[in-house]
Amino acid sequence: MEAVATLMGYAILSVLVFPGLVALSVASLLTEWFVRKTVARMQNRMGPAYVGPIGLLQPFADFFKLLLVKRYVEQRYSSPLLAVAGVALGIGALTTALLLFPLSPLRLVAPYDVIAFIYLMILWPFLSLIIVSLAWPNPFVIAGVSRAITLAVVTEPTLVASILVPMNIIAKRYPQVQPYSIYYTSTSVYKLWADPNVGIGNYVITLLLLIVSMIAVIIAVQSKVMLKPFDIPEAEQELIAGFATEFSGPIYALFRLFHDMKITVLALAIVYIFLGGPAPYSHLSVEGILILLAKYVAVVFIVSLVRGAFGRFRIDQAIRKIIAYALIPSVIALILSFII
């Protein structure tokens, strides 16, 4: 009975507090501040500056300001309840996905749990986006959703192929660990970067495959979260705000939080699956915490750098770029990972 109570305590802590809903929300809003501040400084603007020290609390103020506005833009076929359900579905999926990572007190670990991760991180957030957008049907919304679906056709396979590269190499090289597990990949991948004992040829090829797949996954993340140059589904000059045209008040606040959560969880996925999280230190050590934060900030900085440096692609340009520089390289890297 005591063991069951302890397990339930860990479950509640992991889902609701850390790394669950509360911690993920705070980290996501801080990540939004970092992205906004970085892009603003790149473009000679101030960025968030007034709420809190160096504007650190501006995303929190924006969120609560929208959340407390009890007003929806109503129209004949709108469904605010459907929109809330769609956002809740996406936020719930992202929160659950964190339980697969080593930083969670309660970890979900199993062979081939990457399949669950793909469902939670790739499929459900995309379906959530479609549900919440179509809750307010509008010509601009429909056009934005159609563009999002077009991007997803090449973005989602790229994410899957890229994530499978380090997992496949680890499954072949370390057969004693559970194959295709997020946890065991995250705790073992640092060995691929730092262990030349497998032979210089295999070591160099492994490094090349990891680098290629990591570049591909960063491009795919940029497209999945629809940051420049892939913000085509919400192009202001063409579609007002695309799929988000009719959002307002609490729905818009939750949708923005959901968007920030996607950036946060995807950045954490890159940090753990490709860079080993806090490795070679533990999560509870000062060195491990600092290394984990440094890797996370580096990944988010790269995403921010790309957003600030590029203009928006046309939809045909975006598809060609993703296929040429992300999808094809990630598929080739995946095929080679089966061979080495």
How would you describe this protein?
The chain has helices at 2-17, 21-42, 58-67, 80-97, 114-134, 139-173, 182-188, 190-194, 200-224, 236-239, 249-273, 286-309, 315-339. By secondary structure, it is an all-alpha fold. It has one domain (2-339). Helix 2 (21-42) packs across helix 12 (286-309), helix 3 crosses helix 11 and helix 9 runs antiparallel to helix 13 (315-339). It is globular, with a radius of gyration of 20 Å. The N and C termini lie far apart (49 Å). The mean pLDDT is 87.
* Helix and strand sequence: HHHHHHHHHHHHH
Total tally of structural domains = 1
State the helicity in percent bands. Answer: 55-70%
Rg over alpha carbons: 20 Å
Instruction: Give the strand content.
Output: under 5%
Helical stretch tally = 13
Low confidence ranges: none
Shape: globular
Which structural class is indicated by helix and strand composition? Answer: mainly alpha
How many β-strands, per DSSP?
Answer: 0
- CA(first)-CA(last) distance: 49 Å
Summed over residues and divided by their number, the pLDDT gives a mean of: 87
| Biggest sheet overview | none
Protein name: NADH-quinone oxidoreductase subunit H
Keywords: Membrane, Transmembrane, Transmembrane helix
Membrane topology: Multi-pass membrane protein
Subcellular location: Membrane
